[in-house]
Amino acid sequence: MRIGMVGLGRMGANMTRRLLKGGHEVVAFDLSEAARSEAKGYGAVPAATLEELVANLSPPRVAWVMVPSGPPTDQTIDALGRLLETGDVIVDGGNSPYRDGIAAARRLEPSGIRFVDAGVSGGIWGLENGYCLMVGGEPEAVAMVEPAFLTLAPEGGYAHVGPVGAGHFVKMVHNGIEYGLIQAYGEGFELMHAATEFDLDLHEIASIWRYGSVVRSWLLELAELALADQAGFDAIAGVVADSGEGRWTVNDAVERAVPAPVMTAALYARFASRQQESFAAKLSAALRNQFGGHAVVTEGGAPGGPAH
Fold it and tell me: Of all helices (H) and strands (E), which one includes residue 26?
């Protein structure tokens, strides 16, 4: 099939390459001329504007959006909505809040343009291994894009999970689970790192856990890769960002009164990792000092006696 790809960042560029390798034709647009030129080198048809992208597609057209969530995605969808026609399909494959996708579909409905939300997992490894695709939308619209879905996903890695919004909702929960798994691995390996009396080889342990262990996973395989390069690992600061999905998952769990303590704690752990100094910990130390006379550590690092 012939498909338009809007956004040639790490994910969009690699998805374009996988589609081309799968025999599809891709019309590629990005604000960056260098990104367009690189896509052309892979065999894509570069488009300098959205107008040019649409002009290079034949009805019924499919335009796949891979840009940052929020206003950039909304603005891109609305711009495409003014250029496309009845029967065409817009796919949002970014990490967008599922309610944004539902709202976008409603905005497009009067023009007869259909909307599909595709939750995409696979990261930078997706080009080689394929992308897990969780897709929401009307069956007819999903069927139009299915040849691309089947090429992008590994065997068994694609499903039409429900109506518009369902794809991004499932991807949101997927990322909340990911937060919890990453935090659990981090805490477990930190505990082993602290057990200095055993002189444990953490890389070796990560390696053997990949085979037969009940905690084996792709994340564990990535942990083994990270721990293999000790110098590179030591250079990494313990600061963990969050790109939004974990917050959306926790907020949604609160709204639905669904207990999600593991995902919530993992999100808060990421917040804590970005604090140079914890005000809460500072107050806790002061309170212990006040009620029990426990020593505090001053800014210079020296222990201090009871405060008066």
Answer: strand 25-29
Which of 38, 171, 224, 245 is catalytic? The answer is 171
Identify the CA nearest to 62 among candidates 137, 169, 11. Answer: 137
Q: SS in 3 state form for 93-147?
A: CCCCCHHHHHHHHHHHHHHCCEEEEEEEECHHHHHHHCCEEEEECCHHHHHHHHH
Model pLDDT for residues 139-188, shown as the tens digit of each residue: 999 999 999 999 999 999 999 999 999 999 999 999 999 999 999 999 99
Distance CA 68, CA 183 (A): 25
Q: Give φ, ψ of 29 to 5 degrees.
A: -125, 140
Q: Quick one: which of 12, 167, 11 has its CA closest to 99?
A: 167
Of 46, 58, 56, nearest in space to 16 by CA: 46
Residue 243 sits at the vertex; the CA angle it makes with 241 and 245, to the nearest 5 degrees, is 125
Supply the pTM of this predicted model.
0.91
Q: Which of 52, 138, 178, 221 is catalytic?
A: 178
Give the number of other CB atoms < 10 A from CB of residue 143: 13
Which residues are bridge partners to 132 per DSSP? 121
Q: Would residue 282 show up in a list of annotated catalytic residues for this protein? A: no
Is 171 known to be catalytic? Answer: yes
